[in-house]
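Subject: two folds for Thursday's group meeting

Dear M.,

Sorry for the delay on this. The cluster queue was jammed most of the week, so I only got both jobs back this morning. I'm pasting them in the order they finished. Each block is the input sequence followed by the predicted structure tokens. Could you check whether the formatting survives your parser before we put anything on slides? The first protein is the one we discussed after the seminar.
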Amino acid sequence: MADLRIGLIGLGMMGRHHARVIREVEGVTLAGVADSYGDPHGVAGDLAISASVDELIDLGIDGAVVAVPTFLHEEVALRLAEAGVHALVEKPIAGDVESGTRVVEAFERAGLVGAVGHIERFNPALLSLRERIEAGELGEVYQIATRRQGPFPARIADVGVVKDLATHDIDLTSWLARSGFASVSAHTALRSGREFEDMVSFTARLRNNVITNHLVNWLSPMKERVTVVTGEFGSFVADTISGDLTFYENGTARTEWESVMAFRGVSEGSVLRYALTKREPLRVEHEAFRDAILGRENAPARIVTMREGLENVRVAEAVLASAEQSATVVLPA
């Protein structure tokens, strides 16, 4: 079978990584690239740089990766859907729910594979964590907490930290818990003099009654990407920068120090860091996109669908509304 011909639209910071990975993945070929601003990172190689999406489509592509700024996602994605081209759109799927809805409906009407680049789902630590939760290793899940903070990325100018970063946490939380968000309560801050928020703290309740907490910002000098899932038998801690997963077990040994026992509620047990096979998440994401286009078994369940990406934007907008209103926002069932 001939390789799938994949086009890349957008040659910025994420585009350069997509170009590299597309060239590495078996069964696909980087057939063309497009960016009206040129190729700042020199990733095109011997490929001519198309000046428009239509010019790229004319090369005869089966699928495309959309790595342009968020405000252009709808325009580019709709043109791909009209041309019958499968698409992997970087997150968020669009700048707002209305725009995202039009994209989702276009791809569904055309019967095309539409995926959103919520890359955390392909991180080895989170993949292992989800498998272990589903195997019952944590028992009942009580709480999910995430911390996603680091320095300001100058490349992001069209959305704030909620839609750019917190959508990762919204997506992975729903995915781990297998439940959507029921309500959110949030606070945001603008400290860097930009138009959009650069800090958010929000709590939530999922539809299955798991409670959650999320701390996200562009204002920390250190970079942190941590997910903590606490349940009946202990806590899992996933570090998605290193790809490490650690389990802190509730202790079974008797604690005789009365003041400590009263303070902790449960005793400390064993701590285990798992040895995981660590593959680059972006490569795994591209393999899932390839397999979905080819219709391989279970492939659709591996991608983050556009419908799921749209729900993430819906929750993000509820977070922003909560912060603006200083009130808890209940999401429609």
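Second protein, same layout:
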Amino acid sequence: MGGLRLALSLFTVAPVRASSLDRPAVRHAMLLAPLAGALLGLVLGLAGRGLVLAGATPLLGAAVLVALSLLLTRGLHVDGLADTADGLGSYATSDKALEIMKKSDIGPFGVAAIAAVLLIDAAAAASLLARPFWSSVATAAAAFAAGRLGATVACRRGLPAARPEGMGALVASTVPLAWLAAVTLVTAGAASLASPWRGPLAVVVAVAVSWGLTTHARRRLGGLTGDVIGAAVELSTAGALIVLAVG
């Protein structure tokens, strides 16, 4: 339960307080990140589909869903996405790129990344909300569970931290690969309840996106940062939403 509380506090604005913030607690939180994502997606799906039932268009329901996702996560992950885009897009040395990522302002790469991802999320969510009630809600839960699995992937064993301090240093290499595989299989199995084959495929795509991004971050930055985790969550969610929205 301590790990779940920490996962909810890290990935949502749920009013829960973690009992500890050390590497064992973080490991449990990252392993439970997909569950936190599924709960978030469930709330978002209910809100978006509820608006559609009340007479709103699926596009308006999707816009509200995306806006609520930012509100219920404090915009933390899109901030990481923007910083990561600015750092990686600079083509500077690793030290200079990390310095860029620490700045509070957002550059053109960050603005473009946020705009593109939110547009994709809204367009995909509109497709989901046009479906029957429980299908809409279940696919939203599956998409956000797959997106938070991106954080679990980012914290896999063998991927070092880019800095000796910060969130990246706390969570880097906390998830053993065997546990990552187990959580991925469980998440894929749960996602199959939303869509028998698109659900598991969405999970596979989310894992591939996060793995690719974090591998690139290791090559360019030297390892993992908290911003890279946020970017992995946002990009993995977008990838999962695309898969679930098509067809």
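Two things I noticed about the second structure. The two ends are 38 Å apart (CA to CA). The longest helix spans residues 198-221.

Cheers,
T.
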